[in-house]
Each structure stands twice: as C-alpha cells, then as structure tokens.
C-alpha cells in the first residue's frame, strides 16, 4: 500500500483585513459612566478623551471612537 503524496503550500504574502471604523451611538438606556468605563478599558482611552467622545455622542447622536 502506498501513501499519498503530501504537497506543502507555503504562502509568502499576507493579506490584512480592512480597518474597521468604530463609532458609538447615543441611547437613553446606557449610563454615561458605563460608556466611559468601556471606552477606557476596551479602547485604552484617557479619561479626558473618553469623556469627549461620550459627550460628542450624547450631543450629536453618534461619535467616532477609532479605526
């Protein structure tokens, strides 16, 4: 009994996924302090930057977080 040949395919190029644009939207359910905590812990934003983004979403309904 003969074993099948194994062909090794080596990929030299690497395709990157396109960047995503993260935005947040204002709602009347999520507390502001929770939004601040998420922006600081998930996106590693400073307290001042997180507050700016949170208030922008509060006033303009949506705010850009990062790409």
Structure, explained:
With 67 residues, the chain is of the alpha+beta class. It has a domain at 22-66: Ribosomal Protein L30, Chain: A, CATH 3.30.1390.10. Helix content is 37%, strand content 13%. The protein has a two-stranded antiparallel ribbon. Helix 1 packs across helix 2. The radius of gyration is 22 Å and the shape is rod-shaped. It starts with 21 loop residues before the first strand and ends with a strand. The model has no long low-confidence stretch (mean pLDDT 91).
Gist of the model:
With 67 residues, the protein is an alpha+beta fold. It has a domain at 22-66: Ribosomal Protein L30, Chain: A, CATH 3.30.1390. It has two helices and two strands.
Layout of secondary structure:
Elements: E1 22-25, H1 32-42, H2 47-60, E2 62-66
Antiparallel strand pairs: 1-2
Helix pairs in contact: 1-2
Which CATH class of the domain at 22-66 is shown? Alpha Beta
**Rough outline:** rod-shaped
| Fraction of helical residues | 25-40%
Widest beta sheet: strand line-up = 1-2
- The CATH level-2 architecture of the domain at 22-66 is identified as 2-Layer Sandwich
């Amino acid at each position: 009994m003969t074993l099948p040949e194994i062909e090794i395919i080596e990929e030299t190029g690497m395709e990157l996924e396109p960047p995503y644009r993260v935005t947040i939207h204002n709602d009347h359910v999520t507390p502001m302090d929770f939004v601040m905590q998420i922006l600081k812990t998930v996106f590693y934003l400073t307290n001042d930057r997180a507050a700016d983004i949170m208030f922008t979403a509060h006033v303009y309904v949506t705010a850009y977080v990062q790409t």
